Amino acid sequence: CLPKFVLCEKLQGEEFSVLSFCDGESQVHMPPVQDHKRAYEGDTGPNTGGMGAYSCADHLLPFITPKVLQQAQAINGACMRALRTETGELYRGVLYGGFMLTPRGVMLIEFNARLGDPECLNILSLLSPETDFLAVCEGMASGGLGKVPVSFQPLASCCKYACPEGYPTKPLKNSPVDLSGLTKPELAYLG
């Protein structure tokens, strides 16, 4: 008996994420975001869950066009519809599409049924003051998302994690993280 294995094509390009609020019938797409997974400066070191992320004020990224964004959004929409067709159930919640822009076009890397970390820190901070996030969540759960006004401010966002020395392989415990050099930062302590 021969062993079973799967061959995967190695893709090269720029990764980005498009998250969508879904109620099973409709979707609201969030601005695209790019996270950076390597632990050290210059895209070096071990992979992590994410060291930081950014989004741009024009709700694109420097390497994607409106057409590329529309293709990624269409893939998220097709997934939501396919889940209904295949399972008979409505997908309600956040759909996280992880994509790569390659020389051959947009390629799907993964789907997640959750908000991304750190991506959601960037994106949710861009919700307009008129958008009620609780109403968005209720709309996803009840099937009434299409009735909830959702908009995002035309602002750029950047999230960078401050991690202890040695992260992610052997982080020093109880070591201080010095943020005194930052001017007017908006900080969120998450543990």
From TrEMBL:
Domain of life where this protein originates: Eukaryota
Membrane-spanning segments: none
Keywords, sorted A to Z: ATP-binding, Ligase, Nucleotide-binding
Record Pfam families: GARS_A
Phosphoribosylglycinamide synthetase ATP-grasp (A) domain location: 5-120
InterPro entries: PRibGlycinamid_synth_ATP-grasp, PRibGlycinamide_synth
GO biological process: purine nucleobase biosynthetic process
SUPFAM superfamilies: Glutathione synthetase ATP-binding domain-like
GO MF annotation list: ATP binding; phosphoribosylamine-glycine ligase activity
Protein name (record): Phosphoribosylglycinamide synthetase ATP-grasp (A) domain-containing protein
Organism: Haptolina ericina
